[in-house]
């Protein structure tokens, strides 16, 4: 687990809102500020093409002669348009409830460490509290519904976790990714609350989903992430994948105990009323539910292909 797709996830929602506003206002075209080198141009435009194929799309970055972000900053300055970046700190920042991303500037050198002053959501792990903090997250059918026993709506949960995790320096990621357009780019991300939710949810699945279903979900999760990253949220394939994932969450209910300390988020406990974990089966002590002698026959049958392949090839 590294990048949790905070930017990619926001684009379908923005595209959907754009279409709704366009319909309300009677607009016949859309415009976006995504560059001609990035992924967002694809995500926005695929969203519009899927929801309002009759509309025209205007992409100024691909029309006007901006050579890069510095040109854009100068243009904004000449027109009196306030922007939160400068020539000294020309980071491209994208912030939403899920995360904040940083690109550009010194980050274009993949060997240079980011300036600590750049980070907005998380405390430096070195300056985080010296004592760990524990949280209990309650889930119902795959969704977090409470923190430390207090019921909250999704917005409150994310805001609360962002604050707590950010205080402990949790959720920083520095990666080089492969853009859809074929370019490698470096991105630095802060996803404090999302990191906790991802790890807690994933751990709860380990005791509430059977092995084969979990393995298949793991395979589909890669496709699911690629569909999001590549802008196919509204595709038929995405609907099918989401339907499978939704079905797997029927029994993902329970409580996960989390420990936060100096930039590290650890799962230290989990429980569920519908858990598939049976301590009487799992024990290494003497028990009656599992006859260890049965394992010999299982291994003989399970290992037969390997045994026969080795035997026949030695002839």
From TrEMBL:
InterPro entries: Arginosuc_syn_C, Arginosuc_syn_N, Arginosuc_synth, Arginosuc_synth_CS, Arginosuc_synth_type_1_subfam, AS_cat/multimer_dom_body, Rossmann-like_a/b/a_fold. It comes from the Bacteria. Its EC number is 6.3.4.5. Pfam families: Arginosuc_syn_C, Arginosuc_synth. GO terms for molecular function: argininosuccinate synthase activity; ATP binding. The keyword Disulfide bond does not apply. It is an enzyme of class 6 (ligase). Residues 91-307 form the Arginosuccinate synthase C-terminal domain. One of its GO terms (cellular component) is cytoplasm. Pathway: Amino-acid biosynthesis; L-arginine biosynthesis; L-arginine from L-ornithine and carbamoyl phosphate: step 2/3. NCBIfam families: argG, PRK00509.1. PANTHER family: ARGININOSUCCINATE SYNTHASE. This is argininosuccinate synthase. The gene is argG.
